[in-house]
């Protein structure tokens, strides 16, 4: 089975109904753990010295934000997809560079072995699929690599207050590219909260200069600043 191709198709498919209707990953009977560790270490070393990572970290650190937590959704099959493995490497390098102790990772396709690997890397893997609706109470980097906009929108809907958005930085597919390439009807159907917040977001497009162009393409940093967001108590915040 070509898990990488399957994963790419899964992430780009338009999800109109329940986001939890994904078949969990099967255990990897022929998985070579030692080879995986070597590949991961090699990729992390190369990525951490790349211009892509340098630019990304420089921008994240420049923001007036704190990163007590990293929440990563939609990582994919890290044991069988090279894209997912590079995205995992970025997650781990972000954890190190931002000095973040709390990392939560979830994808319903993870196999039992993949969960064990992530736990060994000091990443928490919840059992329950929250379908993106994680409630934020501390400064959080939400890293959703190539996730469908519906998942990001569910996360925004759960945290759609000025107080909570000020604690969040989103590293995901560009809101601006999505809202300028789709008709308003599609935006309203698929991602109404992205449609509401895009004009009040600070969006920094990350140059796609990584060695593999299909790993971090369309990635952007989205942050929210006090003086740019509407005041609490206005109709804007109505759900």
TrEMBL record:
Pfam families: SRR1
Entry GO terms, CC: cytoplasm; nucleus
Limits of the SRR1-like domain: 64-222
Domain of life: Eukaryota
Family: Belongs to the SRR1 family.
Protein name: SRR1-like domain-containing protein
Lineage of producing organism: Eukaryota, Metazoa, Ecdysozoa, Arthropoda, Hexapoda
